[in-house]
Amino acid sequence: MKYVSLTVLFCTVLVLASAQEKKQPDSPRKSRGTAIDTVIMEDVNTGEKRKVRIIIPGKDEGVITIEKSEKTYEYAPENEPRKKESHTEVTVDNPRKSRPIYGITFSRIDLGLVKLIDNGSFTLSDDNRDFRYRPGKTVNFGFDVLQAGYRFNDNFRIFLSGGFDWTYIRLRENIDFLENTTPLTWEHSDIDYSKNRLTSTYLRLPLTFELRSKSYSGLGRLRFAFGPEGGFLLKGTQRFKSEELGKQKFKDDYNFTQFRYGAFARFGVGSFGIYGKYYFNDLFENSPNQAGLQNFTFGVMLGF
């Protein structure tokens, strides 16, 4: 450092080194054989004075370290009060204030109830009376496994995620849906099914706009998320259980809509929350008698 007086520095180092060799009693300035002292040095060009901390390690512990203070001092002649003391503040921006987000995840785990809406009503029309279902056992389950997006700041982010979504419709009637038929066709069976469940499996693709509050101690963040959601049909399944035939399982698309679209909203605290989803297009396609039969889901969720 060109502004340091070499003479003062050299003398100071000799004094401290000598004190270290004499093994004086430990003081608050010594730690593990290391001597620490602070001196005032003057810039020979500008006359500016700064505090400099000198660290002398113990024997065989390393090299001498000199640390410059960020403070600047101005002194009056001897026996007069100091005129000025100032310091420089350093502000460090958070490099992660805004950043892309992407990768594998296991979040937004949904478990909710499903309500069928028939042309705006929760009451099924005559054409769909055979779709009467058990409300407590007609459920939705899903989760996300991938996500990619951008966090603009600590309170707002946008991301597209991908996952899987299942809708389980537990039917009351003993009806058997026929495979490879269009429009959707079913028959009434003479067998009394103890379980008759129609299932659709979708690849879901929600685009999420998420607002987050600051983090509260012991509570976490308040979160509100909403956006559109699309989904591609992966498969349809019907499962039966009866005393006569035991368990049976059949796979077909059962005229489920190949691509469904809708909207969702989520609200929660920390990792827990509630959600609701509504799909704008019909539950089945190419089936005129089921036109206007739609899917509404609401429930609880884990993991934002």
From TrEMBL:
Signal peptide (residue range): 1-19
Domain Outer membrane protein beta-barrel span(s) in chain numbering: 132-281
Top-level taxon in the UniProt lineage: Bacteria
Region of interest (Disordered), ranges: 75-94
Keywords for this protein: Signal
Stated name of the protein: Outer membrane protein beta-barrel domain-containing protein
Annotated organism of origin: Parapedobacter defluvii
